[in-house]
Amino acid sequence: MSTDCAVRAEALVKTYGSTRALDGIDLEIPTGTVLGLLGPNGAGKTTVVRILTTLLRPDSGRAWVAGHDVLAEPGRVRESIGLSGQYAAVDENLTGFENLYMVGRLYGMNKPDARARANALISRFRLTDAAARPAKTYSGGMRRRLDLAGALVATPAVVLLDEPTTGLDPRGRLDTWEVIGELVSDGTTVLLTTQYLEEADQLADTILVIDHGRVIASGTADHLKGEVGGERLEIVVGEQAEVETARRVLAAVGSGEPTVDQHARRVQVVVDAGAKSLVEALRRLDVEGVTVLDVGLHRPTLDDVFLSLTGHATEENQ
What's a single GO MF annotation on this record (predicted)? Predict the structure, then answer.
């Protein structure tokens, strides 16, 4: 495997009875970058993570992590990675400090180094006040931060984060984003699965969208948004009776069938001419005597990409 590629998978297949969890997945993560792995529940995201971390054998296909074959050299792979799964894997009877110290010792650190690394991560993840308390007294967000800290104890070359900010409050999520940014700045490679599309937009250099075990799209966030096409013109009108007129006007200035939220009196359509389409829509609505309470022109979001590709919203929005 090329030294400038930290993770690579070729044609990964995994089945459970009649269910094909992975159906020929390919992926590649250049060293020092973040790959965002997106997909609905059951798409195969966690199965990919489990194979790359040697916790699961594929039925066919190959994968390499930090230059090591996950099937032929599982020990070397495990030495090179950090993993934070969907559920915090901490020992509830140990303190926060003891959890991290134990991980350091299991990685072969001497006692002073393990102690210093544990203290540094306790501080980094804002757990200082709780460091001496048993983990079973931690809130869900604190347990997530402790688990993520545990994945970083050995300063791994590759970090796999399976929905790392699930259950965190906004401050905790922003702190985690900052830590991930620091990791990448230091040359660490990150595979991130997430149900928060803003998270992928913020952190990922490239994005892979999978559904039913197959890759259905890949590229940068801007590339994927561009594939959806056009900006979104959105109008909110004053009266329910005006919604149909607004729909008709937006259908005339847009490039597709408008979507209508009758309850919110909101009509939205894709437009190709941007601001010109907005001005023309407002002119026609004024002629029709429609009261416009709000108007906006928006670039496609990753939510639009996800909806376009999979046919439904993310679990987050559902």
Answer: ATP binding
Q: 225 near 305, Cβ under 8 Å?
A: yes
How far from 310 is each of 6, 39, 193, 211, CA to CA, in Å? 29, 8, 16, 7
Predicted pLDDT of residue 229: 67
The model carries a pTM of 0.77
CATH 3.40.50.300 in the chain is located at: 5-90+138-225
Q: What is the pLDDT of residues 98-122, one digit of tens each?
A: 999 999 999 899 999 999 999 999 9
Two tokens at 2? 């090329």
* Maximum distance among all Cα pairs of the chain, rounded to whole angstroms: 78
CA pair distance 252, 244, nearest whole angstrom: 13
- Give pLDDT, residue 186: 86
Q: Thinking of the domain 230-299, which architecture would CATH place it in?
A: 2-Layer Sandwich (3.30)
For CA atoms 212, 217, 218, 219, give the dihedral sign. negative
Architecture of domain 5-90+138-225: 3-Layer(aba) Sandwich (3.40)
Taking CA atoms, 189 is separated from 5, 6, 48, 51, 161, in Å, by 9, 7, 16, 17, 11
Mean pLDDT of 269-288: 91
Which residues of the chain are in CATH 3.30.70.920 domains?
230-299
For residues 216 and 211, give the distance between their C-alpha atoms in angstroms, rounded to a whole number. 7
**Can you tell me the mean pLDDT for 157-186?**
85
Q: pLDDT tens-digit profile of 24-42? A: 999 999 999 999 998 888 8
